[in-house]
Amino acid sequence: VQLVESGGGLVQPGGSLRLSCAASGFSFSGYDMRWVRQAPGEAPEWVAVINSGGVRTWYEDSVKGRFTISRDNAKNTLYLQLNSLKTDDTAMYYCAIDSDCTGGYCDRRGRGTQVTVS
Description:
Radius of gyration: 13 Å
Oligomer: single chain
Number of helices: 0
Distance between the termini: 33 Å
């Protein structure tokens, strides 16, 4: 399993970013996927989940209405659109196979991409 996140950066409050996660080494289209994040000194927290077909999604309350999870199974890629960003969204963002995770804790995840809102 290989998961490579990208798309993070420095953005002002109210701004937007689109994160990507390139997946390989497993049958991506057969798995529900999850985004989690971890701020310095904080426990990891789950952010969003999408089912294998990309039809059903779930969001942590603080990001509902601002973040959108999506996927392109033909490209083996998971996305997270971040809108109306707040300083509290500053964290390292990781993608993971949903079944590898309990809440924000995942047995396997990528190296992450840093999102800084300032």
